[in-house]
Write a structure and sequence with these properties.
5 strands; 191 residues; five-stranded mixed sheet; 40% helix; alpha/beta
Length: 191
C-alpha cells in the first residue's frame, strides 16, 4: 500500500492574526518557520516524492524537508492549493477575525455552486480538484508521498477519501463538523 502524508503548513502570519495582502503569498510566522524545521526532523525515512501547494506558506514549510531529503523527487501541484472561496480582492488588508462573518455566511449558504467573485472558486470546483489529486496519487509510482498543503484542503480531501460515494452537497454539509487540522499536523492515509 502507498503511504501518503497530508501535511498542513506551519503557522502563517494570517494564522497568527495579522492582516494579509495576497492569499497565495502569505508567509510563515517565526513560529511557523520553527514548525517547518521540526516537521523535517519528524519524518522517519526518506520520502519518494515531496509535493507542495503553489502557495508560499506550504512551500516554506516543505523547504527544510526537501533540504533533508535531496534525493526525493519534488513537485508543485496547483490542485492542492487552499480553498479560495472568498473573492481575493475583497480580503486584501484584512485579518481572519474581520473575514469571519463572511466565512460563516458562506458556509451557512450551503451552495456548492456559489462563486463569491473573481479569483474565487465554488465548493464543487474544490471537490473536482480533490478528485484530480486522488487520481494523481493513485497513478504515481512512488510509495511514500508527502503533500504540503492547507487545512481546508485536507479536511475536504478526507471527506472525499473516506466517503467516495458522497456528493459535493453531502461533503459541504459535513465540512463544518469535520475535525480541525492544526498547523504542522501530519495525517497519514493509504492508497
Amino acid at each position: 500500500m502507498k503511504r501518503i502524508w497530508l501535511i498542513r503548513h506551519g503557522e502563517s502570519i494570517a494564522n497568527a492574526g495579522e492582516p494579509t495582502q495576497d492569499h497565495a503569498a502569505i508567509p510563515l510566522s517565526e513560529k511557523g518557520l520553527q514548525q517547518a524545521q521540526e516537521l523535517a526532523l519528524a519524518i522517519p525515512s526518506a520520502p519518494d516524492l515531496i509535493v507542495t501547494s503553489p502557495f508560499l506558506r506550504a512551500q516554506q514549510t516543505a523547504m527544510p524537508t526537501i533540504g533533508r531529503f535531496p534525493q526525493a523527487h519534488t513537485g508543485i501541484w496547483d490542485c492542492i492549493h487552499e480553498f479560495v472561496y472568498l473573492a481575493p480582492a475583497t480580503c486584501v488588508g484584512t485579518t481572519f477575525a474581520q473575514r469571519r462573518p463572511r466565512v460563516i455566511a458562506y458556509w451557512r449558504k450551503l451552495d456548492p455552486d456559489y462563486i463569491d467573485g473573481e479569483g474565487a472558486e465554488s465548493y464543487r470546483q474544490l471537490m473536482e480538484r480533490i478528485q484530480t489529486t486522488i487520481s494523481l496519487l493513485q497513478r504515481r509510482p512512488e510509495q511514500f508521498i508527502l503533500l504540503f498543503t492547507h487545512a481546508q484542503f485536507i479536511r475536504n480531501f478526507l471527506l472525499a477519501y473516506e466517503h467516495p460515494q458522497w456528493t459535493a452537497e453531502q461533503c459541504m454539509a459535513s465540512f463544518r463538523r469535520s475535525d480541525p487540522v492544526r498547523n504542522g499536523q501530519i495525517i497519514e492515509i493509504s492508497m
